[in-house]
Design a protein that fits this description.
By secondary structure, this protein is of the alpha+beta class. It folds into two domains: about 170 residues, Fructose-1,6-Bisphosphatase, subunit A, domain 1 (Fructose-1,6-Bisphosphatase, Chain A, domain 1, 2-Layer Sandwich), CATH 3.30.540; about 150 residues, 3-Layer(aba) Sandwich (D-Maltodextrin-Binding Protein, domain 2), CATH 3.40.190.90. Helices cover about 30% and strands about 25% of the residues. The chain contains ten helices and 14 strands. Helix 5 links the parallel strand 6 and strand 7. Helix 1 packs antiparallel against helix 2 and helix 6 runs parallel beside helix 7.
Length: about 350
Amino acid sequence: MESTLGLEIIEVVEQAAIASAKWMGKGEKNNADQAAVEAMRNRMNQIYMQGSIVIGEGERDDAPMLYIGEEVGICTQADAASYCNPDELARIDIAVDPCEGTSLVAKGQNGSMAVLAISQKGGLFNAPDIYMKKLAAPPAALGKVDVNKSVRENLKILAECLERSVEDLVIVVMDRSRHEKLIKEITDAGARVRLISEGDISAAISCAFSDTNVHALMGIGAAPEGVITAAAMRCLGGHFQGQLVYDPAEVKTGLIGESKEENRKRMQEMGIEEPDKPYSAEELARGETVLFAASGITPGDLMDGVRFFPGGAKTQSLVISSQSKTSRLVETTHLFDQPKQLNLK
């Protein structure tokens, strides 16, 4: 899968990042998101594949593009029979977030990226459009920290695994009212907190790299993004757990309109028989092969953002594969017109 789709998957996130970056700092997050969606979908439909969107632009939204269940790729088009041999192609599932951090793009702030994960059919958890309690940590803490342990206990374990004091730990938390108690527990234990407004995929993946100065992600975020994060963390050998949160009172957003009981019923209809189970990265991204790709829209801890120059742009992308067991940082120069000048860096 990596050898046949790898380069083209990189181009999918690059094109989404470039399209969204044109709206950077203009205060229009919906346009930034729509531009990324359109560019991502257009490039996907140029790839010789049979893909199905399992995580996309909202499970319950009437999204016109990259909606849950949409078929993408050349071999899903109406006239595909004339040039595609279905027997030669494995069907793949795709999870996308064309513009993670729409408000970050709109405000010209750091940390937004275009991101996707792919695996064989059935290889990605079909997460409902609700919330998830998340715990991400470096590879050294894999299987040792646990989302159901206390904050203090997890910080102690994490410090021991990383051979540093609790006071030297930096924990990323989404800046939300639901996290007031969590933040107090972290600081009372002696660790430091780094608050983010959006972008917990990037923050979680940063835990797997020792030079980011991020040692864990804790708190509640969107469930679909949790599956994309799990795909990357599985490839990197990092620790990730996600436990679905379906009680509207717990997330305090007003975005889950149903009652706790209705949410649980909907989860059962989706085949989720253990709604309170903490799922590991291997369970959320369970395919034999998993590929993750992201491209920076605005600068972040993992990648630089899109940099425009007369006649073109430069992108920086991160590609992680369970098949080749590699993590690649790819810098690409895109030529739109005849450039007046090119730089290597």
